[in-house]
Design a protein that fits this description.
Layout lengths: L5 E2 L5 E6 L4 E2 L4 E2 L13 E5 L5 H15 L5 E6 H6 L3 E4 L6 E5 L7 H14 L16
Antiparallel strand pairs: 1-7, 2-5, 2-6, 3-4, 5-8, 7-8
């Protein structure tokens, strides 16, 4: 098994696909719950999309939605710098090659600390973008 590889470039954009509607529709800001780590591994799934076109990012999101059997509600972007500032780190976690996870969270049982960090990250995220009408189509 290969050792994990950290993403160290602070300017690297991290895209998070949203499936649970964890954003405010009034101003399209992301809620902290959208960045909360998964209970089973204490990590938050993100994608490195710096070299991808907008269409390719949405196609990836549609693929993830099919794999999860959930509708894709949107995406948000956070710079790796924000992750580093709150004391967490990003590790590559393929497949696919551009999948990564935000790691280093407090234990999931420490909900107040997790919430505080996730709120700080949410404040650094872009406004939520909703998928284009044709996001479900396969790229041709």
């Amino acid at each position: 098994m290969e050792s994990s590889q950290r993403v160290t470039d602070p300017a690297e954009p991290l895209d998070r696909f949203l499936f649970d509607g964890h954003y405010r529709k009034s101003d399209m800001t992301v809620k902290w719950q959208a960045l909360k780590p998964q209970r089973h591994d204490n990590k938050t799934s993100v994608y490195l999309t710096n070299r991808m076109s907008v269409a390719a990012i949405w196609a990836l999101g549609a693929q993830v939605a099919v794999e999860r059997n959930q509708p894709l509600r949107g995406r948000t972007r956070c710079p790796n710098r924000a992750v580093i500032i709150v004391g967490l780190f990003v590790e590559l976690d393929p497949p696919p090659d551009n999948h990564a996870c935000i790691c280093g969270w407090p234990p999931v049982e420490d909900e107040p600390s997790v919430m505080e960090i996730a709120q700080e990250l949410a404040a650094s995220c872009s406004k939520v973008e909703t998928p284009p009408p044709d996001h479900w189509r396969s790229p041709e």
